[in-house]
Structures are given as structure tokens and as C-alpha cells.
Design brief:
The structure holds 2 protein chains of 2 kinds.
Chain A lengths: L6 E15 L5 E15 L3 E5 L6 H9 L6 E9 L2 E2 L2 H7 L4 E4 L12 H6 L7 H10 L16 H14 L4 E5 L7 H16 L3 E5 L3 H7 L2 E6 L2 E7 H6 L7 H9 L33 H5 L5 E3 L2 E3 L6
Parallel strand pairs in A: 3-8, 3-9, 6-7, 7-8
Antiparallel strand pairs in A: 1-2, 1-4, 4-5, 9-10, 10-12, 11-12
Helix pairs in contact in A: 4-5
Chain B lengths: L1 H35 L4 H9 L5 H11 L5 H13 L13 H36 L4 H15 L2 H15 L20 H35 L2 H8 L4 H23 L1 H14 L5 H10 L3 H29 L1 H7 L1
Classes of the chains: A alpha/beta, B mainly alpha.
Chain lengths: 311, 331
């Protein structure tokens, strides 16, 4: 179904590393994202799931070119079929690609909410913003408040509105729902769904698996800075037998409603990644091959998986 | 409306209490210091008279002044007179201290205000430039200039300026606040300004490097913040970010620094006024110190304490105006 739709964003072999001081003046590169693949089509919501430190937020920064100065990006990103150069990223961010950041810390503490949500756009989208605030049940006086006067849930709704004000074709929402009531979270996600149905695309970075499965079309599972599997959301609803990668299966089983069963071990630290498959040290099915070489991306049953044994 | 008025009255009362208690403490400490110092006020007074005096006459003066009474009693005598507005008579100028301070302060105020404004505006602007070009060439050059300026002694810089601008280039007069040989009622405003420029510029150089470096650091912090990252993600350019978020967020620390620099400014004016023979409060206080003029010294000490304290109070009040987070707590 999605394959017929236009490919909006295509990411191939993306790596992000940080130059750090190791001992004394020795410098060292820390690879935070390695060989990441992700495709986003217009008209769909792609959820990105994974534990903290798996590189979810970094991916958002890499797409927008707002990484810190000591970061280097390798690999290819294409937007609407054209290479996403720095120049293009600069043009697209805030207009065609919008970010919903994680927390209230992303709001200027000394600027009132109204002008802040309106942004620097000209003409000022004040009318549109007021309608959005109303839809999000933000009281009228919210626009006169400062960020520190907002509750966590209000701040999230303001942050979501900043993206919906724009005419963005791609919205990257970095954990937009925590702190909202269930009703408000559903409203926010319904609005994302609406936008997707209008032909736009949403990348939904989230910890809330249930909401992701409910609203997303596809789910990309992140592990240690790479996508181990991209599957239809319905596969996650079906259960582990529909999934392809051992980590996705483990993730499914670790959910409270599915047994709450963790697997031993920890996600590897960016400075000490294993040589072959990043999941190999914790994988019950690993072979010699897994430890030597990073497995390529394979297409299985309409999903993508980075595993020799996935089926 | 009523709330605002009440708040202003409350702030005014607390500030007044703070200033009065501070002045009280300063008066005790400076009085004690003068008491234990080797300066003999009677001797200085007699020296100032310019005539020899018999030991009986001297004993009379001592008796009249109460020099031999216990220090606590003397302190309260002084304090009572002080509260009546009598700061005593200067031993070297032979005029009431209050008059001298009033007259000298007008000169000093013009000097300090120009220097203060100049260092504030230029320091802030340079700090912004350094912050925006952080790590790049303009930043590196300006940073070195600031380091050099803040490590060079000011009196030396003043002498250097005198040598270059007054002696060699003859752009500015060599000293004083008005031309020599012109009656004070005939001095024009332009002549006054002309005499003011060089000392004010020298004095401003003392604090402007400090303000520029602090502003730079604060702007670098702001530019690395998450809200600037988000502004960037929304497509705001560097200078839009400076205008919309940068200035707003570095204004408060810059203001603090600017008003807290009153103490430095006062200290610096002593030096600048001596180098440029500028007849302000600073040169009066150094003359009073060198010649043991106790009434003038105490008077200027109290006055300068009040001056610095008022500066800091203004900074405190401005916080409430600029920072909504503090304003909110105040309400």
C-alpha cells in the first residue's frame, strides 16, 4: 500500500559520530548512529521505538542539521529524491520539515508563549495558532504566560502546535505525548494522523509503544544507533511470530501486557560497539558470522531487517 | 493597581532599611579605622591654619573637640552631628565637607556616567560580536584585545593616552576640567566636554573588557542552549536568533554586571582623576587621605558607600523588571 506513495525521506547508511577528548589530548570518535536505514513515505506515520541512548533524538537532529559542532555525519539522506545538502536542510527546516522537541527546555524562558509559538514567520500565524490552542484545550491566557508557568502537559501541547502552525510536509515529533492526559495525547496523535491522511508524513519518536502501534503505519526499532527492524505496525499487534528481528521480539515480550519479560544484558555504549551485529552479544541465535560482520538489510515479508537469521 | 503601589512601597522601605543599616556599619568601621590610625586630626588642623600655635591654645582646641573623651562618646557626638547634616569642615579646603562633596561629585558624576555608559554599550556590543563569531577570527582577536586591556594597569594607560593624544597629537587638553586662566562662569559646555573625553575614555577601558568577556560567555551559553537549538530547527538564522532570543537572555547578567561595576568605577575614578588632574571626588579623596583630612575622608567614604549601594539596589530592582521569573515570585 505505502509503496505506491511518494518517498519523502530516504536515509541510507547514516552514521553520526562525535569527536571527544579521551585521555588528555587524545581525541576519539564516538559512533552514536551507525549504518542507519530509514524510509518515510508521504501519507504515513513512522514510529521510532527503542530504549534511551539508541540514537532516536540524534536522528532528528541529523535530518535537520542541528547537531553540535563536534559531530560528523556520513551517509546519504534524500528528500523528495534529491540529496539533502546542508543548504537544503537550512531551507527546509522550519518550513517543510518541522520538529516537535522533547521538553519545555526548548522554549525560550524569557519569551511569552504567544509570540514564541508564532515564531519568526511573516506574516504572523496568530489566527492559526489561536485555533490550534483552542483545539488543544489550551486556555486563552496561555499566550500571555512564560514557559516556566506551564504545566508539563501544556508545554507539550504548545510544542506540538509550533509544528502544526507550519506547512511542513514532514513532522519529526520527539516524544510528544508524555505529560499529556490520555485524551490530550490521543488528540495530538489524531492530529498527526489527520496530517498524514492529508499526504504529509510524521516521524514519531516515542517510548509509548501502545500509542505508536495504534497510530503509526510502520514502526522502526532502534538499537544502539541503528535500525534493526522496520515493520508494519500491524505486525507488532500480531505478536513476535510476525516480527523478524530477535530484538524486536524481545522488545515485544518486555511490554507489560505481553509478559513484562526482560532479556539479560545492556545496550552497548557508543564507545565500545561490537564488531559485527550490534545485538550479537545479547542474541540467543548468534553465530560466528554475526560476530564478524554487520548483517546487511534484508526485505522479509514487507519489512526490513538487519539480521542473518531473521525470518 | 493597589498591589503594584503596595509592592513599590514595600521595596522602597526594604531598600531604605538596607541602605541605612549599611551606612551605619560603614560609619562604625571607618570611625574605628580613623581612631586607630596614626593621623592626629588636631595636628592636621593646626597645620592647615598655617600659623604657629601655643601649647595652651592647642590644649584648648583638643578640649573643644573632645579629643580626649572615650572613643564611643566621640563616635556618638560625630554621629549626632552627621544626622543633622553636618559632615564637619575640611582641614585642607577650609570649607564644609558637604559642599565639597556636592561640588566635586558633579564633576565626578559626569566623568563616571560617561565612562559607565561608554563601557556598557561598547562592552555589550563587542561581547555580542565575540559570542556570535565564537571560535572564529573576530572572536580570537577581540578576546586578546580584551585580555590585554584588562591586564594593563589603568594609570599607565592614562599616562600613555596623555602622551599620545594630549602631548603629541594635541587633540585633548592635558588635564583639569576646564581651560586654565578662564573664569569658571565663562567656561563653555564644549570646553567641559573636551576636558572630559580623555579621562572618561580611559576610565571606561577599565570595565569594558570585563563586560565584553562576560557578555561573550553568556551569549555562548545561550547559543548552546536547547531553546536556541529549537529556534534553529524552526529555520531562524543566526542573527534572528540573536535578536529574538540572544539579547533577551543576556541582558539580565549584563545589567547586573553594569550596575555592580559602580564600586570599580569609583575606585577607578580616583586613579583617572589623579592622572588627568581632574577636580572630582576621586582626587579629593586621595588628597584627603594623603594629607590626613579626617572629616573629608569620612564624608567621602560614607558618600561612596551610599553611591555603590544605590547602584546595586538599582540592579536588584531591574531584575524584577527584566526577568519574568523573578517578577512572578515578587507578585
Amino acid at each position: 500500500m505505502e509503496q505506491k506513495k511518494e518517498t519523502l525521506l530516504e536515509i541510507h547508511d547514516l552514521s553520526v559520530s562525535f569527536r571527544m577528548y579521551d585521555h588528555g589530548l587524545e581525541q576519539k570518535d564516538l559512533k552514536a548512529i551507525s549504518d542507519l536505514h530509514l524510509t518515510v513515505h508521504s501519507g504515513e506515520i513512522v514510529a521510532i521505538a527503542g530504549s534511551s541512548g539508541s540514537g532516536k533524538s540524534l536522528l532528528a537532529s541529523a535530518i535537520l542539521d542541528i547537531l553540535p559542532d563536534n559531530a560528523t555525519v556520513q551517509g546519504h539522506m534524500h528528500y523528495k529524491g534529491q540529496e539533502l545538502t546542508r543548504e537544503r536542510q537550512k531551507q527546509l527546516r522550519g518550513t517543510k520539515i518541522a520538529l516537535v522537541p522533547q521538553s519545555v527546555a526548548y522554549l525560550d524562558p524569557l519569551m511569552k508563549i504567544g509570540p514564541q509559538a508564532d515564531g519568526h514567520y511573516k506574516p504572523k500565524p496568530t489566527e492559526k495558532r489561536r485555533k490550534l490552542f483552542e483545539r488543544f484545550q489550551l486556555p486563552e491566557h496561555t499566550e500571555k504566560l512564560y514557559p516556566f508557568q506551564l504545566s508539563g502537559g501544556m508545554a507539550r501541547r504548545v510544542l506540538v502546535s509550533t509544528a502544526l502552525i507550519t506547512d511542513a510536509e514532514l513532522i519529526i515529533a520527539d516524544e510528544p505525548t508524555p505529560g499529556m492526559s490520555l485524551e490530550q495525547a490521543l488528540e495530538a496523535l489524531r492530529m498527526f494522523r489527520e496530517m498524514a491522511d492529508e499526504g504529509k508524513a510524521v516521524i514519531l519518536i516515542t517510548h509509548d509503544m501502545d500509542l505508536a502501534f495504534e497510530f503509526a503505519d510502520r514502526v522502526a526499532v532502534f538499537y544502539a544507533g541503528t535500525t534493526v527492524e522496520t515493520a508494519l505496525a500491524s505486525d507488532f499487534k500480531t505478536g513476535p511470530e510476525a516480527l523478524r528481528h530477535p530484538y524486536s521480539k524481545a522488545l515485544w515480550k518486555a511490554l507489560p501486557q505481553n509478559g513484562f519479560e526482560p532479556i539479560p544484558g545492556f545496550q552497548p555504549y557508543a564507545g565500545s560497539l561490537p564488531k559485527g551485529c550490534l545485538f550479537a552479544p545479547r542474541c540467543p541465535y548468534k553465530t560466528e558470522q554475526c560476530e564478524k560482520q554487520v548483517p546487511p538489510v534484508r526485505e522479509i515479508r514487507g519489512g526490513e531487517v538487519r539480521c542473518y537469521h531473521g525470518a | 493597581m493597589k498591589g503594584t503601589l503596595g509592592r513599590i512601597v514595600r521595596i522602597f522601605v526594604t531598600c531604605s532599611i538596607k541602605i541605612i543599616s549599611l551606612l551605619f556599619a560603614v560609619s562604625i568601621i571607618s570611625f574605628v579605622l580613623v581612631t586607630v590610625s596614626p593621623i592626629d586630626p588636631v595636628q592636621q588642623y593646626i597645620l592647615g591654619l598655617g600659623t604657629a600655635i601655643s601649647p595652651e591654645k592647642r590644649a584648648q582646641i583638643e578640649d573643644y573637640w573632645g579629643v580626649n573623651e572615650p572613643p564611643v562618646e566621640r563616635y556618638f557626638t560625630w554621629l549626632t552631628e552627621l544626622l543633622r547634616g553636618n559632615l564637619g569642615e575640611s582641614a585642607i579646603y577650609r570649607r564644609p565637607v558637604a559642599d565639597i562633596i556636592g561640588e566635586r561629585f558633579v564633576n565626578s558624576f559626569a566623568l563616571m556616567f560617561c565612562a559607565w555608559l561608554f563601557s556598557g554599550v561598547i562592552g555589550f556590543a563587542l561581547g555580542c560580536i565575540m559570542g556570535m563569531y565564537r571560535g572564529k577570527l573576530p572572536d580570537k582577536i577581540l578576546k586578546k584585545v580584551c585580555y590585554i586591556l584588562s591586564s594593563v594597569p589603568m594609570f599607565w594607560l592614562g599616562l600613555l593616552f596623555l602622551l599620545i593624544f594630549a602631548v603629541w597629537l594635541r587633540w585633548f587638553p592635558i588635564g583639569f576640567s576646564s581651560p586654565v586662566g578662564v573664569l569658571s562662569e565663562n567656561v563653555t559646555l564644549w570646553q567641559k566636554i573636551h576636558h572630559l573625553i580623555l579621562p572618561a575614555f580611559t576610565l571606561s577601558l577599565m570595565s569594558f573588557a570585563n563586560i565584553a568577556l562576560h557578555t561573550r560567555q553568556k551569549l555562548v551559553d545561550v547559543m548552546n542552549s536547547e531553546y536556541v537549538l529549537f529556534a534553529k530547527a524552526r529555520g531562524e538564522g543566526q542573527w534572528t536568533i540573536l535578536r529574538r532570543h540572544g539579547l533577551r537572555n543576556i541582558l539580565l547578567p549584563a545589567l547586573t554586571l553594569q550596575f555592580a561595576s559602580f564600586a570599580e568605577l569609583f575606585g577607578g575614578s580616583v586613579m583617572a582623576e589623579n592622572v588627568f588632574s581632574y577636580p572630582g571626588l576621586g582626587s579629593a579623596v586621595s588628597a584627603a587621605g594623603l594629607q590626613g583630612d579626617v572629616p573629608l575622608l569620612l564624608g567621602v567614604t560614607l558618600f561612596s558607600a551610599m553611591f555603590v549601594c544605590v547602584g546595586n539596589m538599582i540592579a536588584n530592582l531591574l531584575y524584577g523588571v527584566v526577568d519574568p521569573q523573578i517578577r512572578e515570585v515578587g507578585e
